[in-house]
Amino acid sequence: MLPSYAPPTYADRETLWNALEKAEAHPKAQLAYSFDITLQNELTEEENKELTLRFCRENFLSKGMIVDLAIHDPERDGIPNPHFHVLCPIRPLDETGAWGAKQHRVYELDDGGNRIRDEAGNYVFNAVPTTDWGKPETLDEWRKVWAEMVNAKFEEKGLSCRIDHRTLEEQGIDRLPTIHEGPTVRAMEKKGIPTEVGSYNRMIRSSNSLFRKIKNALARISEIIAELKAEHEKLKAPTLSEYLGEYYQVRNEHADQNYGYGANKAKVGNLKRYAEEFSFLQERNLIRLEEAEKYSSDKTAENSELSEKCRINDKRIRELNNLLRHADNFMQYKPLVDKLNDIRWKKKREEFRAAHDYELDQFYMARRVLKEAAPDGKCRTAEWKSEIATLTEENKELHARQSVTYQEVQKITHILSHIREGQRAYDGERMHTQHRQHER
């Protein structure tokens, strides 16, 4: 594949590479960049070929590079992985079709802008490539573009598989990479002849498998430790019954100080209320403060959701009743409209209209509303009545559920207020105790 300004004779491989060798001054000069790119078994031979040619055209040829391309057919060569090889001359062609320089000198300068000499008296310089073809960043970009082209083709064919141009480390995958085996190694391994590369890859696969098991075991251990820590924190934290007990203890002390002979009665009432609230929490398996707060939040949200559903149903019922009212008006006043239309004399029509102005207005309004609700002209009063009945029944159920939920919200809100007061008293007493111990 040649740029437009390349000599046509370079289409012949022998001519191309011989001409390039003649352009090199050093007998050991590097002639070409070499790329090996894997094709996909999920794609057909024609699809792989089309991708290959398009990739080389858009990424190599477009930069002015000559492309010497060879696609290896696994069925022909016995190679188990389809791929293609690309050779691109490092030395660029200029616009006249002549070979250009691979690099040029950039001399190092001192602060005065003068060239610097080394110990041997030679000018110090850096050899800078004339193209970006050999840069690692350029190679990474080509790898990325190839992956994007292949993945786009996979998506076009409805395939879920994808390839990634990044290394395992860049992808965040903790796995050692294997070494490419090639057709010779594969053939020997298939015949039962162990090879160094095959043995190395088996060791890598075994290590990766062991590493995955260890990683999964460590992750599970971390989860168990986190669960145990959370459970331990729960056990350390005071329970709701302790907070409630502290709250009613404060109330009992208040009763002793203020109620005199009535203190015992107040204490009995406190004990009864404590038992009721403790039973409420126990039946719902609420032990810690965060559990009670979450229960309160969930029930409040549920109550709001039920209320919103009822509101939406009520709105729809009003809309349907309004449609039924207009349907009744339409049927009731239609004879008057028919009679008006039968009157030919203008004066009599005006007198009739004046006498039935309200009824006619009701009819025309009903016709307009019904036309918006039923553009096909069919008045669905039976369907509307059925929907009203369904929504009404649903609202009865929703209101019943909302009533229960609302009571739950009221009860847990009331209990939480006692718990928080008990918490403040509990924390205050604990700080006081710690302070006394510190003083001792």
**How do the SSEs run, as a string of H and E?**
HEHEHEEEHHHHHHHHH
Distance between the termini: 93 Å
Shape: flat
The radius of gyration is: 44 Å
Average pLDDT: 86
Strand order of the largest sheet: 1-3-2
Major sheet description:
3 strands, antiparallel
Number of strands: 5
Uncertain residue segments: none
How many distinct folded domains? Answer: 3
Count of alpha and pi helical runs: 12
Structural classification: mainly alpha
Question: Which percent band covers the strand fraction?
Answer: 5-15%
Fraction of residues in H or I helices: 55-70%
What does this 3D model show about the protein?
- With 440 residues, the protein is mainly α.
- The chain has 3 domains: 8-102 and 133-165, BirA Bifunctional Protein, domain 2 (2-Layer Sandwich); 166-215, no CATH class; 289-439.
- Helix content is 64%, strand content 7%.
- It is built from 12 helices and 5 strands.
- The strands form 2 sheets. Strands 1-3-2 form a 3-stranded antiparallel beta sheet.
- α7 (240-258) runs antiparallel to α8, α9 packs across α11 (357-373) and α9 (289-342) packs antiparallel against α12.
- The longest helix is centred in the C-terminal third of the chain and has 59 residues, at 381-439.
- The chain is flat.
